[in-house]
Design goal:
By secondary structure, this protein is an alpha+beta fold. Helices cover 32% and strands 18% of the residues. The protein is built from 14 helices and 18 strands. It has a five-stranded antiparallel beta sheet. β8 and β9 form a beta hairpin. The longest helix has 27 residues. The termini are far apart.
């Protein structure tokens, strides 16, 4: 037989024989080892988890929900959630802004045996009482205006009804007004869905959506449809194309669109422009602007009205007579304000930033002393700084002209002044000509004030040079609800375009927005004088 043909051993016949260990026979120590291993496994499975983490899983809930939970001063999360808490006496605090704090000492139980399979569970349920509904709604509205793409804020706010056993008429009115104001920030189909759901929760008092609450919701929407003539445009603008097409094909939409187009086509614009009248107050020139009713928005491209839902679609507005600065506030003008108001000087910028009144670029490049650039429009000023300048000037004339005050122009005042009494135009002089300061290959900044030709009211630079602050809070859909805009918001309206914009992108009806504390080199302001 060859070496490679040797037979394979039969290992079934192999036997292992344990040797004595320290003189102890295998028959004795092997069962002992098995016992120790089994005991250790049982210990680590059944007892060790309970010894190491002795306590309970506590389910934290609250009415209303999304309240902050602290245990022994440490934040753990927002209700509802479940967390493991070690055994012993614990201080539990459940809180939510503008609600009473829920504070309780809880003796958290624990168990040692089999907690891995059967953990100790318990719960803490808190009903927290609302203390200041008005401030709560202000806070929630501010949150939603800054975060309109988180529409859950709406339904979370309406859940306040869960914590009020018998809400007063005043409380219900405030909550309903909150929902109405929130409409200004609805821009998506998802937002529209949450808003309608919130109305349903409101009329069902936070409970189940029933037939009576559905009827009340429908009646409320009909009331809004009557109050806001262009609600159909607002509603459709929030929908995606496919869903919008379903709405635009309905009789409800077609009848309102036909009525709207007829109103625009037949609107009688003001005529008979007055003579230019300029007065001077505190060394500043003001032009008299007559009161009028006019179409605000894009009146140049009316043919689009039947086919495109444009956020700049024209709407009728009315303005009372007012005076407006014929030019933008200059560096020299603002320097006089700073001389008498040290709080607003650049040297105080850290405090101004801390109060949220300016951004870090406030008065950037502003010269310390008078120089040849003092005729440039003042830039790098926030809305709050511009408003403070207006208030300062009001104090200057209060002694001899107490019936009037200065402020930033409303958006409709700004546009009427920019139009100079003209209709269906893109620029203050009716065309692209007018020496406006817009983007050019060599343009590095604005020109001195009064760089353009005046319009028919005698006002300069309403297009180009620098954007200008307006008094209104910004809403992209305000034309469809109220051209005056919401009562509060995240950004203020800016108008006019700047030297850095291509001219064709900023006709006089174009809108922009900036956070009120923002300070930038593309943005300045002018003021109006109105009756108190």
């Amino acid at each position: 037989m060859r070496k490679n043909d040797e037979p394979i051993p039969d290992f079934h016949e192999v036997k292992v024989k344990l040797k004595p260990l320290l003189g102890v026979k295998p028959a004795v120590y092997v069962p002992v080892i098995y016992f120790i291993i089994t005991s250790l496994v049982l210990f680590f499975v059944l007892f060790y988890p309970g010894i190491k983490n002795n306590g309970s899983y506590i389910e934290f809930t609250s009415v209303p929900g999304k309240a902050a939970v602290k245990v022994d001063g440490k934040f753990l999360g927002s209700t509802p959630f479940t967390e493991f808490i070690k055994s012993g006496e614990r201080n539990i605090e459940i809180s939510k802004p503008y609600y009473d704090n829920y504070i309780e000492k809880v003796n958290v139980p624990g168990r040692v045996f089999a907690t891995l399979f059967f953990p100790v569970k318990t719960s803490v349920q808190a009903v927290i009482k609302l203390t200041d509904m008005e401030k709560l709604l202000q806070w929630k509205f501010n949150d939603f205006s800054h975060n309109p793409f988180i529409p859950e804020i709406l339904t979370d706010t309406v859940s306040v009804l869960y914590s009020i056993p018998s809400p007063s008429v005043n409380q219900l009115g405030m909550l309903k007004d909150f929902l109405k104001e929130s409409m200004f920030f609805i821009q998506t189909e998802d937002g529209l869905k949450y808003l309608l759901n919130s109305y349903g929760k409101f009329f069902s008092m936070g409970g189940i959506f029933t037939a009576p609450s559905l009827q009340k919701t429908a009646a409320s929407l009909a009331e809004l449809d009557k109050k806001y003539p262009f609600l159909f445009l607002w509603f459709t603008s929030a929908l995606k194309d496919r869903e919008a097409n379903k709405v635009t094909g309905t009789e409800w939409f077609r009848s309102r669109l036909k009525r709207y187009i007829g109103m625009v086509d037949n609107f009688k614009q003001p005529f008979g422009l007055p003579k230019i009248k300029i007065i001077e107050l505190q060394g500043l020139p003001f032009a008299a602007v007559p009161g009028a009713s006019f179409l605000m928005g894009n009146t140049v491209d009316k043919k689009r009205l039947g086919s495109i839902i444009d956020l700049l679609s024209p709407v009728p507005v009315k303005v009372d007579p007012f005076y407006i600065m014929t030019r933008e506030v200059s560096r020299g003008d603002y320097r006089k304000f700073l001389a008498e108001n040290p709080f607003w000087r650049k040297s105080n910028i850290s405090k101004l930033i801390k109060k949220g009144l300016v951004s870090e670029d406030y008065l950037k490049n502003f010269p310390d002393k008078n120089n040849v650039d003092d005729n440039l429009p003042v830039t790098y000023v926030s809305f709050y700084a511009a408003s403070a300048y207006s208030d300062w000037l009001t104090g200057k004339i209060s002694g001899y002209n107490p019936a009037y005050r200065f402020r930033l122009p409303s958006e409709k005042e700004w546009e009427w002044a920019a139009r100079g009494g003209l209709d269906a135009v893109s620029y203050p002089n009716g065309s692209g000509k007018g020496n406006y300061v817009f983007f050019g290959s060599k343009r590095k900044g604005p020109k001195p004030v009064k760089a353009s030709l005046p319009n028919r009211f005698g006002i300069y630079d309403m297009s180009g040079n620098v954007w200008e602050w307006c008094d209104n809070w910004y809403s992209p859909v305000s034309y469809f609800l109220n051209p005056g805009g919401p009562l509060n918001g995240a950004a203020k309206v800016v108008r006019g375009g700047s030297w850095a914009n291509p001219q064709e992108l900023v006709p006089l009806y174009q809108r922009g927005s900036q956070p009120p504390e923002w300070s930038t080199g593309y943005l300045g302001f002018r003021i109006v004088m109105v009756k108190k």
